[in-house]
Amino acid sequence: MPTLEELNGKRQELAREMRKMGEAHHANGGEWQDGEAQKAWDKANADYDEVMDQIERANADQAVQARLQSLADDDSRPRNPLNIGLPDQTPAGSPQERRQAAENDRSMAMAAWFQTRLGLNVAEDNSEAARRVGLPLHANELRLALPSTERLNALRAAWLRTPARDREYFAETYNAPLTTTTGTSGGNIIPPETMLRQLEVNMLAFGGVRQVAQQILTSSGEPMSWPTADDTGNSGRQLAESTPADDNAGGGSSGDGGPNPTFGKVVWNAYKFTSDTIKVPHELLEDAAFDLPVVLGAMLGERLGRITNLLATTGSGSGTFEGIVTGATLGITAASATAITADEVIQLEHSVNSAYRNGAGYMLNDDTLLALRLLKDNEGRYLWQSGFNGGAPDTLNNRPYTINHDMASAATGTFPLLFGQMSKYKIRRINQLRLYRLQERYRENDQDGFVAFVREDGGLLSAGTPPVKKLQMA
Question: How far is CA 246 from CA 163, 168, 403, in A?
Fold first, then answer.
């Protein structure tokens, strides 16, 4: 694989080539000279995106190495990753060796669980591994206790530094500790971290909104209120000598001290979502017991990520998520039904109150980004800029942007572009993701079923001054 330096050189070369094509496009009155020029532009964009993927992959690899080194150096306090729920017996060896031993035990324990469910004999080593990690071999139901809000936000921050295609790299950089909780029925357990990690990673991979939203965890599902206050319409005032501060000159009734802020609240509920059942042949369960947590975690996470991201983008807010597009306020209407101009992008940005522009960014899909790569501002500068300095991200009008494939493309009446404080979108999640194994339902086909459930809600937090605005096509 090319070095990071070589990839960045290729990135700069392709960006310069794209600029030349863009100049030719502008010189020709905003039209491609012929079909070949259009094809060359499309190919250059595809090549650029591929190089960016390779750069992100290389950066992720460096992050992994740094993380592993950090783990190896972290010997500030004794740890007990193997004997959860057992007397403290800190294993010998370096932190990295202890971590590897813990990973091996978790894999062996999961293999033992699958072998038990299949009626196979379980090796003594595997049974011991299951005992050490606290995994009951006869449990039928797996419950995944989710990490704290802080850990989810740490996961989101790490995800923003890692491309969606590099899940294996990313999985190594984020390792949640394994814990076990036994339910009253004896069947509620937390499985090895591999499946939880893959579920979370793949929900992020298929969730453009989830990558920039704040996630909030609650332990129960009753409606959650978030109080808001809007005082932007009020200001202080000058007083004449000996004039009382609570005079009604501020607009309130006599003696009330003037106008008050507008108070309100935003409420999040807890709607249930399912991955639907994944049917796994007996042969796969028997032959790939060690890999199955990763495979199932990926598939279930992708399914849940797709449905929740769609609703977090365009949900109506009536009995389901309020999507970020739905909650955003109209900032500008484009003059055309099919094309966005550079002026309209800048006008959208300035339609957001300056208090919300610090740290704000754009959200759009790939098709819209491709069109915006050709736009210039009034001083002849391209709105889209390649991040030439090493691993610097690309920007749109010097702002970060998030690709969300559930955003609409430019067409009559659609909303293809958002701008604002994306972190004002909140996703509320209830504290457990449940995973069930259905052993008898598909037995005639010699299959086991796996299905996951999660309870979530999402909405845009606004106290009255809109933090996110949208561009609408004519």
Answer: 56, 63, 50
